[in-house]
Specification:
The complex is a heterotrimer of chains A (454), B (279) and C (313). With 454 residues, chain A is α/β, with parallel strands linked by helices. Chain A is built from 21 helices and 13 strands. Chain A has a five-stranded mixed β-sheet with strand order 2-1-3-13-6. A four-stranded mixed β-sheet of chain A has the order 9-10-8-11. In chain A, strands 4-5 form a two-stranded antiparallel ribbon. In chain A, α2 links the parallel β1 and β2. The longest helix of chain A has 23 residues. Chain C has two domains: 56 residues, no CATH class; 230 residues, MetI-like fold (Orthogonal Bundle), CATH 1.10.3720.10. In chain C, α4 packs antiparallel against α10. The chains are: A alpha/beta (454), B mainly alpha (279), C mainly alpha (313).
């Protein structure tokens, strides 16, 4: 074999590779493609969605649905890229604050028909409140499922520390006292584990400010970081970090915190029902003994003044992009997706975390017979109670009106609030100094973006 | 000092150093492989064991059954392979053109090329995405291949140029006197002599493409088009971090690469070295 | 024909075998034709985006909303007054110099070792070059796993071997930079090994023999024979690696992210990414890239000057 022909073969192989790539990139022709972006890369959920898609395609020949599961951290980035280029997917998950700013820009297709097909009154009131645009009397989104952030803890560790494992702390003071008793630094055990990446610090700061009777913005959207409830929250956080958090808490990923509870490194965390999988895999003994618990309420801060606690609503919404290629087919798919049979399958793919948005499904015997509920019913019930009684709100939103500010995404993805907390807990700045700096940075950001209204 | 003792000490030092180096480089690999076959309960524990009696391949089964790992793997091979071939083709042509023909701007082209080697992807990723979008190449492997090719080209050209310079023109001339056409002379004489350089360039490009995270993250959205780094990051961040499965994924990526690397490392050193020193 | 062909060193040899059927393309055009694909790719996909970044840096531009205003050098004024920018430069310098010096020390040491002959050298050599092949995401996940404070094997090994009573918390704010520098050294030092080892293999062994005759010990041999020989390659390696480390994005991003722990390792590339893709201020981000670009170019020019002068002295 001569070198020449070897070279020619290599060239042919290269050409074939390029051709293959081009082919792979080309969308299937002559079919209406509905692209669906969502943030549930869990293999089980993806498989369920694939099943629903297959059934939908059978009913709707000529339409092809393509799901894309994104790590949630990438959703915003990808959305920006799509917005920058004008190449929208038909359907995407979005944070509540994105839903509002996108609909304000006229990019979303109204979803009243989808809501009607599900039955508007069947949807939990707080979910309606979240997705309903009062001014326009229109729904521009619908939460795919909801979940509530709760305090998760180890009952056995509570008992060991001489605490009543069923008694939820009512105030921050009580909570800190509990956590101190649960902390034994010489053994590498801590009362609490918090996730350190920026997104989670945003989550905790807005929930705690809200649980302290506070807010993040005034009526005109000017940040209110130097107000007393925020300063007190920072002082509380500093105290927590000094007494009851591991020194590397900032590096703990969200899932690491579940690992901490599973291994007994931490007695408490705040988190979601998704964690049940983690416990079953890594702490089967604790699960079997019923040592994993959740509190139905969260503690409030000193300035709460009788207001209830604020906790987070995991409630990414389905949105349909008006300027995508096949928005109508997209709407048809969502209607199909939310049919009770299909929706049930979806909810059951992450049963404890995915709380259904419809009240009928919540009481559906098939739902109640979900095998995982034998062990975890208390967790679902606790979420239900919060959803009915305490108006959980999505991330960064301390008051419903905040949903309408156009800069929440930018602020959430900046590091301003996160740096404020980091600087305080590290003792690099006092709460007042750190808050003042964050206030100044946030005002500058909003000004630079052209959204300043005060 | 007693010369025998001295030689003994020297040898001892060499072996000690080699052992240390092998440990530092090899232990993480070993640990990854071990974690991938341990039962779950032995994974998350404060007192890890350095062997397991209950090794099993469940993590690998989960990896292939529950994820699109195979797709990611094939995509990575395709993209890295395609970029490598494209880079070699373009760089060989250019290096040959620059070393064998005199034309205006020849030197400045070489200099500018070298200069662009210093650009980091982070500096251009925003405008790059917008351009790819306009060309309709976002969400395509071709777009990725083009970006890896253009990022590997400067170094590859620079390296191949010094190789071609070191190959005496007389050899080509001799081949042509013997009746070969110029392309034949290039393929039969020049390329084989520059083979270490070509191998070095291919490995360099392959690594760039195989490891890249930034371009892939920004350009690729479709799950079916994801390359391994994206696929693994998403597995890592997806609902339940399955350490066994993640480590299994690391092993599957690592083993073929290790084998490949072991095969060509000799050429690699000769190639990069020669290019690097002379440039 | 002979005259046109003179422009090519190969030209005259074409004379004995002209191909009359083909219209001859002038030789210098062939040069352009061969170089064209490479030039077009680099021009279109690297240089043009760089130019576009310069243009963007003079604008206030939102990442996707249609907000685009020409604001002259205002972005640069903001940057100058921006405490976080200066912090990112400081952190970037610590990271770049820290990981660069370790890579050089470990890399040169490993290259010297691998240039010795010993049983199993091929194996150790393959193993030592391997970390460079590993995708960054795998390196990061593996390091997070090994250096984990709860169930990491590093902690267990350090405490078990009695090296330290309590292992440092690798991922706390005090150590994260160090941990990241160590991880970067681990995965990037093979680059240094490859370059240096190749050069070592070409050193004339008689130089060592001569040095030995003069009674030079190992250290003096290294200083007087080896070092002068690898100086040239080290020069190139230091330049390249510094630039790569100073602009490193993926490893740091995947290691620590934007906020929280990322606060302590937020180098200029990370800060640029947060500004562009987090705060969505693409103009501001582009201005940061322009600064990065300018700094690196200045560094390269000064570095080359110094080296040239050194060379001629």
């Amino acid at each position: 074999m001569t070198k020449h022909s070897a070279f020619a073969r290599a060239l042919r192989a290269g050409a074939a590779a390029v051709a293959l790539a081009v082919f792979a990139a080309a969308p299937a022709m002559a079919q209406k493609v509905v692209n669906v972006w969502h943030t549930e890369p869990n293999p089980r959920t993806k498989a369920v969605i694939d099943g629903i898609i297959a059934d939908f395609e059978k009913e709707n020949p000529g339409v092809k649905v393509v799901q894309e599961a994104l790590a949630w951290g990438d959703l915003d980035k990808k959305m920006q890229a799509a917005l920058a280029s004008g190449a929208f997917p038909e359907i995407a998950h979005g944070q509540a604050y994105n839903e509002r700013s996108l609909s304000a820009k006229g990019l979303l297709r109204p979803m009243n028909d989808v809501i009607a097909s599900i039955g508007e009154q069947d949807i939990f009131p707080v979910v309606r409140k979240l997705n309903y645009n009062e001014k326009e009397k229109t729904y521009y989104g619908l939460a795919h499922a909801v979940g509530v952030d709760l305090t998760i803890y180890r009952k056995d560790m509570m008992r060991e520390a001489g605490l009543d494992p069923e008694k939820a702390p009512a105030t921050w003071r009580e909570w800190i006292d509990q956590l101190k008793k649960l902390t034994d630094k010489s053994k590498g055990r801590y009362g609490l584990s918090l996730a350190g990446p920026g997104f989670f610090i945003n989550e905790d700061i807005y929930m705690w400010v809200g649980s302290n009777g506070g807010r993040l913005f005034d009526e005109k959207g000017r940040p209110t970081f130097t107000e007393k409830p925020v300063i007190e929250t920072l002082e509380f956080w500093k105290e927590l970090a000094d007494c009851c958090l591991a020194p590397d808490w900032l590096s703990r990923g969200y899932l690491d915190t579940f690992g901490d509870v599973a291994t007994g490194k931490a007695a408490m965390i705040v988190g979601w029902g998704r964690g049940t999988d983690y416990f079953e895999q890594y702490a089967p003994d604790a699960v079997a003994k019923g040592d994993i618990g959740v509190f139905k309420t969260k503690p409030v801060g000193p300035s709460a003044g009788g207001k209830p606690f604020l906790t987070q609503f995991d409630s990414e919404a389905w949105m349909i992009f008006k300027n995508s290629k096949h928005p109508e087919e997209g709407a048809a798919f969502l209607k199909f997706f939310h049919r009770a049979d299909n929706y049930l399958k979806y909810i059951q793919s992450v049963p404890v975390h995915f709380f259904p948005v419809t009240q009928s499904l919540r009481t559906d015997p098939r739902y109640l017979a979900t095998p995982a509920f034998q062990k975890w019913k208390f967790w679902v019930d606790a979420q239900h109670e919060v959803i009915e009684k305490y108006e959980p709100k999505p991330v960064m939103i301390t008051e419903w009106k905040d949903l309408d500010f156009p800069f929440i995404a930018e602020l959430a993805n900046s590091t301003i609030l996160v740096d404020m907390v980091t600087e305080v807990t590290r003792g690099q700045r006092t709460p007042v100094e750190a808050a003042r700096r964050a206030q100044q940075r946030a005002e500058q950001l909003i000004t630079q973006l052209g959204y300043r209204k005060w | 000092m007693n010369p025998i003792l001295r030689i003994f000490l020297e040898r001892a030092a060499v072996y000690l150093g080699a052992a240390l180096l092998a440990f530092v480089c090899g232990f993480p690999l070993f640990w990854m492989a071990l974690t991938s076959v341990k039962p779950d309960r032995e994974i998350i524990t404060a007192t890890p064991s350095f062997w397991t009696g209950a090794a099993h391949l469940d993590a690998y089964r989960r990896l292939f059954d529950q994820t699109k790992f195979e797709t990611y793997f094939v995509n990575s091979v395709l993209v890295a392979g395609g970029s490598t071939l494209l880079t070699i083709a373009v760089a060989v042509l250019a290096a040959y053109g620059i070393t064998r023909f005199r034309f205006r701007g020849r030197e400045s082209i070489a200099t500018v090329m070298l200069f662009t080697y210093m650009f980091a992807p982070i500096m251009i990723v925003i405008p790059f995405y917008i351009m790819m979008r306009k060309l309709g190449l976002a969400n395509s492997h071709l777009g990725l291949m083009l970006s890896y090719t253009s990022f590997s080209l400067p170094f590859s050209m620079w390296l191949l140029r010094s190789f071609f310079q070191s190959i005496p023109i007389e050899l080509e001339q001799a081949a042509m006197i013997d009746g070969a056409s110029r392309p034949q002379a290039v393929v039969r004489v020049v390329v084989p002599m520059a083979l270490p350089g070509v191998i070095a360039v291919s490995i360099f490009t392959f690594i760039v493409a195989w490891n890249d995270y930034l371009f892939a993250r920004v350009l690729i959205g479709k799950d079916d088009l994801k390359t391994l780094p994206l696929g693994i990051q998403d597995l890592y961040e997806s609902s339940v971090t399955d350490w066994g499965m993640i480590m299994a994924a690391g092993v599957v990526i690592t083993i073929p690469a290790l084998a490949f690397f072991a095969m060509v490392q000799r050429h690699l050193i000769a190639g990069w070295g020669a290019g690097g020193v002379k440039g | 024909m002979a005259t046109t062909n003179r422009s090519s060193p190969l030209g005259p040899l074409d004379l004995p075998r002209p191909e009359p059927r083909e219209r001859r393309v002038p030789e210098h055009l062939w040069g352009y034709v061969l170089v064209a694909p490479a030039v077009l790719l680099v021009l279109g996909l690297i240089l043009y985006p760089v130019g576009y970044s310069f243009w963007l840096s003079l604008h206030s531009k939102h990442a996707y909303m249609p907000i685009e205003t020409f604001i002259g050098f205002e972005n640069f004024v903001w940057i100058w007054e921006d405490e976080d920018f200066w912090r990112s430069i400081r952190l970037g310098m610590v990271y770049a110099f820290g990981s660069l010096s370790l890579q050089i020390v470990v890399g040169v040491g490993a290259a010297l070792l691998l240039n010795q002959s010993f049983v199993g050298r091929g194996f150790v050599r393959a193993l030592a070059l391997f970390p460079y092949m590993m995708p960054t995401i795998v390196v990061v996940i593996l390091m997070r796993w090994i250096f984990n404070d709860s169930y990491g094997v590093a902690k267990f090994l350090i405490e078990g071997s009695g090296l330290m009573a309590r292992a440092p918390v690798f991922f706390d704010p005090d150590h994260v930079m160090l941990t990241m520098i160590l991880a970067s050294t681990w995965t990037f030092f093979p680059f240094v090994v490859i370059g240096v080892l190749a050069r070592l293999q070409t050193i004339d062994l008689e130089l060592y023999a001569a040095a030995k005759v003069d009674g030079a010990g190992v250290l003096r041999q290294f200083w007087h024979v080896t070092l002068p020989q690898i100086r040239g390659v080290l020069f190139v390696i230091v330049l390249l690696r510094f630039m790569f480390m100073f602009t490193k994005f993926d490893l740091i991003w995947l290691f620590a992210g934007a906020g929280g722990l990322g606060y302590f390792v937020r180098t200029l590339p990370i800060y640029t990414f947060v500004k562009s893709f987090g705060e969505l201020q693409v103009g501001f981000g582009a201005a940061l890239s322009v600064i990065m670009f300018t700094m690196l170019s200045a560094f390269a020019v000064v570095y080359f000057r110094l080296f040239r002068r050194d060379e001629h002295a």
